[in-house]
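Reading a protein record of the kind used here takes only a little practice. The integers have meaning only within a learned vocabulary of local backbone shapes. With that in mind, consider the following protein and its fold in token form:
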Amino acid sequence: MAELEAAASKVIRSGCYLHGSETLAFEKELAAQSGAAYAIGVSNGLDALRLILRAYIELGLLKKGDVVMVAANTFIATVLPVTEFGLVPLFVEPDADTMNFSWSEALRILEENDKAGSKLNIRCAMITHLYGTPCWDRQAAEEMRRRGIIIVEDNAQAIGAQAAEEGFNGVRATGNLADASAISFYPTKNVGALGDAGAVVTNDVALADTVKALANYGTDRRYHNVYAGYNCRLDEIQAAMLHVKLRHLHDEVMRRNQTASVYAEEIDNPVVTLPKIFPDMVQVWHQYVICVPPEIRDVMREYLDKNGVQTDIHYPVPPYLQPCYSEDYLPKEATVATRLAKSCISLPIANVSQEQAREVARIINDFNL
């Protein structure tokens, strides 16, 4: 609190509220955190994704009608910029163990598309590090790269996570595994703004320059608009808040892992399937998601609520079933995604002490029909 108040006061007294030293300092530290060359602060996580796709279109690497593979169980923000620019989402089933985009399923789809004479012009894969578990398969990613497919990370939930294998840029940090990534700093994220904010991270100078211009009305210099751009800037107050929060990321990850470890050790109820812990990764547990049989989910949530344990569902409706898409992009099969949507429950994970986690586990273990 003292650090945040001091940072806010510094910005207020400076009289500089946009394009200032706080944003530059935060971007520099964020790039260093992920081992990337460039980090561009923007208005929110959705805009970060929008700016990446729009930049690739401006650079001639994507065009209207191109297909973008996305996880079938992601939050709708991953999909909205795809359809906004006339790109076509192709929903890929999640892996049952990681609950992430399934690389093996994506490769199967690519092989089927080859056999069908490449009817779908698959040009991009948008992978989501869902709930804070890294989604990366180096061999599969290299196969996609050989096919000329751009790989974008939706890193909204996994800042500070480390994959089991190095990415294209020689590091294991999510957000710098592939070609570009989008980060959200929504207040509930592991690094949360005191409002809304986001960032684009990349090693591609052309992409970085294009994103930066698009985010500032499409200008490469004052009053010179090379693109019909947007106002997606990160303001100085939020940059200052995030600069403070970023310095505490390691401690936040440690706390959440301690809570997740207690849940894993203490929860023992036959109706509950726990999320897997992967020792060769660093998971950051933006959410701790258990699964129960769909027919008892509401009953269990009511029971937990009555016993003082608040829960949530991430996410109850897959993006392809949202009203805004009117079944335009229904996948042929999405059995895993549908099952997860009907069976998942998010337990408290932020600011939960080990004692509280044990109490949550005790309450869950006492649940029976």
The chain has a mean pLDDT of 97. The chain has twelve helices and eleven strands. The radius of gyration is 21 Å. The CA atoms of residues 152 and 359 lie 39 Å apart.
